[in-house]
Amino acid sequence: MWFGLHAQQKINTFHVVDSLTKKAVPSVSISIVRAKLAISTEKDGVFSIPGDLSKMRDTVIINAQGYVSYKTMLHQLNGIDSLKLLRIEHQTVPIDSIGKQEIVLNSVKKADVAYYAGLHTETAKFDYLQLAQQFHLPKAGAYLKKINIIRLAFNISYESQRDAVGMEVTRFRLRIYEVDTLKGGPGTELSKRVIEISNKDNQSLGINVSNYGIKIPGKSFFIAIEWMRDFTNQGYVMLQEKSGRTVQLVDYRPAIGIHPVKGKILNIWGLDLNRQWKPYTYFSPDFTDLAITAVVLQ
Amino acid sequence: MIDKVTQLAIPSVTVQMVREKLTTSTNVQGYFKFDLEQMISNDTLVFSSIGYLTYKLPTSNYVPNGFIQLQPSNTSLEQVDIIGTELKTKRINGFDLGQVISDFESAPTPYTSQFAYAKLFTVPTENALLTKIEIGRIGFESKRRTRVSADGSFPELPLIKTNPKTRFLIHVMSVNPRSNLPDVTLFTKVISLDDNLIWVTIDLAKEGVVLAAKEFFLAVEWLRIPYNEIIKLEWAPRIRGLRKNGEQLLEDVSQYRVLYQPAMASYKSEKKVPSYMKTKRGTWVPAHNSGEVALSASVKY
Questions:
Q1: Strand, coil or helix: what is B172?
Q2: Contacts with A, B 163-192, CB within 8 Å
Q3: Residues A53, A77 contacting (CB under 8 angstroms)
């Protein structure tokens, strides 16, 4: 994957690898902060930046699930071709006891979902790497069993709308977080393994995560969608700018449904290109939750 | 911060933390923040904005990411007393359900996503009372086929996501005597809908809207806000790769377009009523719609 290319520019290619195994880290998120650019690498962990790096003063953040984020100035990458990421050591979180009662959190009906997050619009460009939904448990301690997500997909008629078939194929990742008690947003990651979902054109996606052994120690947790800003997910959005000009912008699928009810507090947080978690207020005050349902055992 | 009556977000509300002597204001979505590690417990938040009663909240009662409602300070309306003889009722620029439904015959491109649309109305006399407005609307219910076309197949609806909810403004406006364009706003009402009804009736009997002149404009103003978004799926080519001879390999990928509700129906009519569209710059230009937009008014006089 590469950022915008012009003829006769020097191409700086980087390989992101695990610092211990030296193997390529797949699907690495690369953000260039001030330029507001972000992509995901393919499985080979390779990305390229055109131009003379020694003159670039922007900040680049390199992140992959299970690894410590690497943040540096672009000019400091000049002359380097390999970036080694340090693996995060996960600690086993003790939970006193888990019952067998199944609890459904934030139940959403597919037919009720009409709004979607993840598209550039006149109101705001969508510059988030992840969106997270907060869930609240009746008491601390639970196992995460299943996740259901409603995403933007159309009921295509295969007979008469054949051109549109396959338009909405998507691939994304799920991340599970504890609450950062200081800032209120997502904190320590609870999912040790990568949860990657691929889907052709279903609107409702049910994911069984019981085999991932995700334990929730506290009374609240987050489930986040991580966008893979790669070739598979790349599409476009047409919108009218403030000047009146209609422009075509690159956009990444999927767009995630919004729960069409207004709660008492906002439960959606967004990870911006600076990798800072902030409340996602785009649909406020009308809507407060994503169309993500969690089923836990407690 | 939200308006207690309309539930709309209030931007630019001044928020003061009294003891700490901090001040901020709400953004376009009504949100505010102070850069503090944690909320100060022994202080008071004061919320003030033009048009609203000032509200004080002890910080000990503050709920992070919660909603705070401000009461509008001016809500009185003029009362209109009607006495004496029985009034006549007249419906102007009327349309019927059949005309609205027939808009489905060709792939419906709804009259939507403008900034504002205004239609001219002429009443029999001065000082008539505006009692009702009716709007024909497209609800995009893809499963409900209201009509079968001549060859027996159902017409395919465009790939647009259904959204029953919408919020928009209706204005009653005077006519500029020199330009004949929409002029001064005489009355405004916020309309909130949350269903897919194709016939919307707005009862104004209690609002006491007296039309001083024989001619006036009814204008629909679209709020281009997230609440009104509907999404249309199109597709566009992108380069998938290159052949050995250098020829580009193209493939179609999704292209989304965000439109804004309400989607108003239009119908075929021999009679052309003067109507105008508001441009981004705020000027009114003649509207060149192929049919009549389904907007009617009823008056008593």
A1: strand
A2: 163-165
A3: yes
Q: Could B255 and A248 be called an inter-chain contact, meaning their C-beta atoms sit closer than 8 Å?
A: yes
**DSSP 8-class letter at B139:** -
Query: What is the span of the domain harbouring residue A156?
Result: 102-297
The rounded distance, in Å, linking the Cα atoms of B120 and B229 is 28
For A146, counting Cβ atoms within 10 Å of its Cβ (0-12 exposed, 13-18 middle, 19+ buried), the class is middle
Cα B293 from Cα B135, distance rounded (Å):
9
- Contact, B91 vs B133, CB < 8 A? no
The answer to whether the Cβ–Cβ distance between B255 and A119 falls below 8 Å is no
Q: Where are the alpha helices (DSSP H) in B149-198?
A: none
Residues B192 and B256: their CA atoms lie apart, in Å, by: 26
* CB-based contact B256:B231 (threshold 8 Å): yes
Cα atoms found within 13 Å of the Cα of residue A101, Cβ hemisphere only: 9
β-partners of residue B92 are B297
Are residue B109 and residue B49 in the same domain, yes or no?
no
Does residue A271 lie in a domain region?
yes
The dihedral sign for the CA sequence B156, B161, B166, B171: negative
Cα(A134)–Cα(A223) distance, integer angstroms: 7
Tell which of B45, B76, B107 closes a domain.
B76
On chain B, the residues whose CB falls within 8 A of the CB of A136 are: none
Q: Which residues of A touch B67 (CB under 8 A)?
A: 264-265, 285
Cβ distance of B258 and A239 shorter than 8 Å: yes
Q: Is residue B241 part of a domain?
A: no
DSSP code string of chain A: -BS---TT--EEEEEEEETTT-PBPSS-EEEETTTTEEEE--TT-EEEEES-GGG---EEEEE-TTB--EEEEGGGGTT--EEEEPBPPPPPPP-S---S-EEEES---GGG--EEESS--SS----EEEEEEEEE-SSS-EEEEEEEEEB------TTT-GGGTTTT-EEEEEEEEEE-TTTSSEEEE---S-EEEEESS-SEEEEE-GGG--EE-SSEEEEEEEE--STTTEEEEEEE-TTS-EEEEEEESPPEEEESS--SS--EEEEETTS-EEE--TTTTT--EESEEEEEE-
Distance (Å) of CA B106 to CA B155, B157, B261: 7, 9, 20
Domain check: are A71 and A142 in the same one? no
Identify the CA nearest to A189 among candidates A206, A174, A171, A209.
A174
SS3 at position B227: helix
Distance from the B226 Cα atom to the nearest Cα atom in chain A, whole angstroms: 6
Per-residue pLDDT of chain B (301 residues; tens, 9 = 90+): 888 877 777 888 889 998 888 888 887 668 788 877 667 778 899 998 888 888 998 888 887 777 788 888 754 444 444 445 577 899 999 988 777 665 544 433 445 557 889 999 999 998 899 999 999 887 665 444 333 444 444 444 568 787 888 999 999 999 999 999 999 999 999 999 988 778 889 999 888 889 889 999 999 998 889 999 989 888 888 888 888 888 888 888 899 998 888 888 888 877 789 999 888 778 898 987 777 888 999 999 8
Range of the domain at B284: 89-230+259-300
Q: Residue B199: how many CB atoms within 10 A of its CB?
A: 15
Question: A177 lies in a domain?
Answer: yes
Residues A256, A291 contacting (CB under 8 angstroms): yes
